[in-house]
Write a structure and sequence with these properties.
The protein has 283 residues and is of the alpha/beta class. The protein has two domains: 27-111, Leucine Dehydrogenase, chain A, domain 1 (Rossmann fold, 3-Layer(aba) Sandwich); 137-261, 3-Layer(aba) Sandwich (Rossmann fold). Helices cover 41% and strands 16% of the residues. Strand 9 (230-231) and strand 10 form a beta hairpin. The structure holds guanine.
Length: 283
């Protein structure tokens, strides 16, 4: 049987319609502040995409564009003023920052209630605890929505995550555990990666590198989420996995592009709405 395509683009559209509907009923306009330092062209493209996404669903986005050579204290003062600004519901510092700026310090200075990326220790901890007030990291949240909204059973299943980043691998492992999967978290020091991948009924690959997981290891019928995105020399976008072999083995999988990527962007909108509501004690 042909595998099911876990279409993140279509699902994003559905969720954005839901978000817009809810935002239209509010008596206030949720606001996201975005800080972009320097002129990295990829970051500029990402940020303008986020601004466009916001406006389409009725979220106000305010871009703070800062010069590459800016002093860290000046960025910190801006974050502090956005933390104190009652109009601002979410704050996002676009990464990477120029190398003279300390990302951990600056991201860490965002008020946890406004941390719509879900990067802060508090939100990572609340995510680990399964606390409903967590602003969860956007990519892991998007992965879970892709599974649950496609009625993929999770409880009791063998889930294998490849990659242990704080933005994807570790929180995805936490969310799958909270959804009652039996989770193995693999990484660059894992011995015999193949033996783990072969057991996976749900496989999440967030290695950030092509060729770490060989698609021929995937068990027939597995559900596969490919978080990677890479541009080939031909200009074509591709994931961490070889999708030709993957399509022959998996029962369902995310395409690249059009799988996890649009979901990450949509979860930022969802988190901004959540932050806006919880700051006003709306459930
Ligand atoms: N740079 C690339 N992806 C992201 C993201 O999801 N959040 C932030 N803040 N920066 C990024």
């Amino acid at each position: 049987m042909a595998p099911k395509i876990l279409d993140g683009k279509a699902l994003s559209k559905t969720i954005r319609i839901e978000l817009k509907k809810e935002i239209d009923t509010l008596t206030f306009v949720p606001t996201l502040a975005v800080i972009l330092v320097g002129d990295d062209p990829a970051s500029a493209v990402y940020v303008s995409g986020k601004e466009r996404d916001c406006h389409k669903v009725g979220i106000n986005s305010i871009l703070h564009r800062l010069p590459a050579g800016i002093h860290e204290d000046t960025v910190r003062q801006l974050v502090s003023s956005l933390n104190d600004d009652p109009q601002v519901d979410g704050i996002l510092i676009q990464l990477p920052l120029p190398s003279h700026l300390d990302e951990d310090t600056l991201v860490g200075s965002i008020l946890p209630q406004k941390d719509v990326d879900g990067f802060l220790a508090v939100n990572q901890g609340l995510t680990l605890m399964g606390n409903p007030h967590a602003l969860q990291p956007c990519t892991p949240m998007g992965v879970m929505e892709l599974l649950t909204r496609n009625q993929i059973p999770i409880a009791g299943r063998e889930a294998v995550v490849v990659g242990r980043s704080m933005t994807v691998g570790k929180p995805v492992a936490a969310l799958l555990t909270n959804a009652n999967a039996t989770v193995t978290l693999c990484h660059s020091r894992t011995r015999n990666l193949q033996s783990h991948v072969e057991r996976a009924e749900i496989l999440v690959v967030a290695a950030g590198k092509r060729g770490v997981v060989d698609s021929s290891w995937i068990q027939p019928g597995a559900v596969v989420i490919d978080v990677g995105i890479h541009r080939l020399e031909s200009g074509e976008l591709t994931g961490d996995l070889d999708h030709t072999t993957l399509a022959d083995r998996a029962s369902a999988f995310t395409p690249v592009p059009g799988g996890v990527g649009p979901m990450t962007r949509t979860m930022l909108l969802k988190n901004t709405l959540k932050a806006a509501k919880s700051r006003r004690n709306i459930l």
